[in-house]
Write a structure and sequence with these properties.
Elements (H helix, E strand, L loop, with lengths): L1 H24 L7 E3 L1 E3 L9 E17 L4 E6 L6 E2 L4 E5 L2 H29 L5 H26 L2 E3 L4 E6 L6 E2 L4 E18 H4 L8 H4 L3 E7 L2 E12 L9 E9 L11 E8 L8 E3 L4 E2 L5 E6 L5 E12 L2 E6 L6 E3 L12 E3 L6
Parallel strand pairs: 1-21
Antiparallel strand pairs: 2-20, 3-10, 3-14, 4-6, 4-9, 5-8, 6-7, 8-10, 10-13, 11-12, 11-14, 12-13, 15-19, 16-17, 17-18, 17-20, 18-19
Helix pairs in contact: 2-3
């Protein structure tokens, strides 16, 4: 009986020890950390970039007005409709202006007749020179009067100055309006103007003339809209050479072509991205948020090796430019760097590129 009890105890201890050893042998699998990674093999990542908030404007935007007073008798277009250059948008009651023109034409025709008659009399020495000159003067006055009357009659039609869209009607139908009063707003949305302001510190980095031509040889311009990260090419068409008195910034304007399947309207906000051209002086820039320091106050980045594991790489940094910082040394041979979650990483951590899903 004692022997049987001893055997059972030994078996129990053996089984228990086996369980303990099995649990000890189970190792927790390292967790792969999701981060954003910048691939430095792409030469564009070596370019310095600048980012500015901006606003979208119609390429042409004009408030149209009559040059004479009157009552509107008809609008030929509604808001949102396309209008061709030279088309009649609205018309005034022209009865009075027609009457004035007809009277002026009659006076002019009579003045021509009188002038011809007095000219013959003057040539035959039948009238004094002063009377002939008076008829000539009257002819010139009536000629000017008919030109004014004709112009006023023409101004009873409001014409489109360019191809565009009637963005807004500013008065009611049949309203009485005065000269120079805004009637409609016409916008040309065949392309867009993007206006933004450049800080003084960025302007100082431009070498040479502060002109669209010179700046366009240094940087390429792109536009991003809302949460869409897609970049649309744009062209610099104007930049102010005088700073705003309060903000000390310089207003600049880009032109962007109409984009298919993209809703762009005047008044929308956008982001301007200016990227230094690759053929410009080659310097290495990386996102400033990718750099961290330790207790030695040295600067480091998390570099990624071929096994997708990170290692601490010391770098020497230079000037900060917008959201980027120049790397003077230490980046040689590095192909990829981590740009997010850097404070949660440790040496040899395995990482994977974070991919956004959905909105």
């Amino acid at each position: 009986m004692k022997f049987k009890t001893l055997v059972i105890s030994i078996l129990a201890i053996t089984l228990f020890s086996g369980c303990i050893n099995t649990e000890d042998e189970v190792e927790e699998k390292p967790k792969i950390k999701l981060v954003k990674i910048l691939d430095l093999k792409n030469s564009g990542n070596f370019s310095r970039s600048f980012s500015y908030p901006s606003e979208v404007y119609a390429f042409q935007d004009s408030s149209l007005a009559f040059e004479v007073n009157g009552k509107i008798v008809k609008f030929y277009y509604q808001e949102g409709q396309k209008v061709k250059k030279g088309a009649v948008i609205a018309k005034l009651d022209d009865a009075i202006y027609k009457a004035n023109y007809n009277a002026a034409r009659a006076n002019y025709n009579q003045a021509i007749t009188d002038y011809k008659r007095y000219k013959k009399l003057y040539e035959s020495r039948s009238v004094a020179k002063v009377l002939f000159e008076k008829q000539n003067q009257n002819l010139q006055l009536t000629k000017a009067a008919i030109q004014v009357a004709k112009k006023n009659l023409e101004e009873t039609k409001l014409l489109a100055e360019f191809d565009g869209i009637m963005a807004k009607k500013m008065v009611n139908d049949y309203a009485r309006v005065t000269a120079k009063q805004a009637i409609v707003r016409l916008q040309d949305n065949s392309s867009y103007k993007i206006k933004f302001f450049v800080p003084e510190s960025d302007i100082q980095q431009v070498k040479g003339e502060l002109s669209p031509k010179n700046i366009s040889t240094i940087v390429d311009f792109y536009i991003t809209l809302g949460s869409d990260n897609k970049k649309y090419e744009a062209k610099l068409i104007d930049i102010s050479t005088t700073a705003e008195s309060v903000t000390r910034t310089f207003e600049a304007t880009l032109q962007m072509k109409l984009q298919e399947n993209v809703t762009i309207l005047p008044g929308m906000t956008a982001q301007v991205l200016a990227i230094e051209k690759a053929n410009h002086k080659r310097r290495v820039f990386i996102p400033y948020k990718a750099v961290f320091t330790d207790e030695t106050r040295s600067s480091f980045i998390w570099a990624v090796n071929n096994d997708n594991r990170v290692y601490k790489q010391e770098v020497k940094i230079g000037k900060i430019s917008g959201e980027s910082v120049e790397v003077l040394s230490g980046i040689e041979g590095v192909l990829k760097i981590v740009t997010s979650g850097i404070r949660f990483l440790e040496a040899n951590d395995e990482v994977k590129v974070y991919e956004k899903i959905g909105e």
